[in-house]
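We treat protein structure as text, and this decision shapes the records that our systems exchange. This encoding replaces a full spatial description with a residue-level series of whole-number codes. Below, we set out a record of this kind in full and without editing:
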Amino acid sequence: MSLKKFTIVALGFMLLFILASCSNGTPEEQIQNHLEEAVTLEEGFEKQQSKITDLEKKEQELYNQIMDLGKDEMDKIKKLAKQAIETVDKRKEAIKKEEESIEQAKEEFTKTKEVVEDLEAKEAKDTAEKMVETMQDRYKAYDNLNKAYKDALKLEKEMYELLSKEDLKQETLTKKIDAINNAYEKVIASNDTFNKHTKEYNEMKRDFYEQVGMDVTYEGDSDEK
């Protein structure tokens, strides 16, 4: 019997660039400043993702060790279960920091909406409006992803608490594992939606910069723009 684990893999949100022109306070430059400040504020989110992935791997190893033990080795099971619970708690802490990073980025990005109205070029304005809408959808997707992941963490912690009980019945454990797997299916679906909006936003952002004539170079490009 194994507990199927899934790792959240968010698409790289940052499109690093080098500005070739200086800010002069135009609506285009103001929007750019808010967009890239939001990117900077979201760096904490990226860092926590890496930490969460490492903790998930560690917990998976502990789970496998527990599953290899028999009921006559309860002392070892309890010790490993305690360590696993500690990793769950650490993931909860990382999620909290991740939330803070996203919320700060969201507050900064919201300032973009006010400036979009000042754009004169229709094509750029249309793209900017769609970009704002897509990012708002992305934040909603993150909220759903965040809730789904927290629900999964709660179930995992309950499972390790069950594993520490000497009178645990196989049926009870199986139901809990099924519940966890179902929870992670929701995590995957939410994560797919989040990644989809992230990709769409990055593409619109690139289009916007090109439409307003911003001379930028994106990481991964072979030639400078």
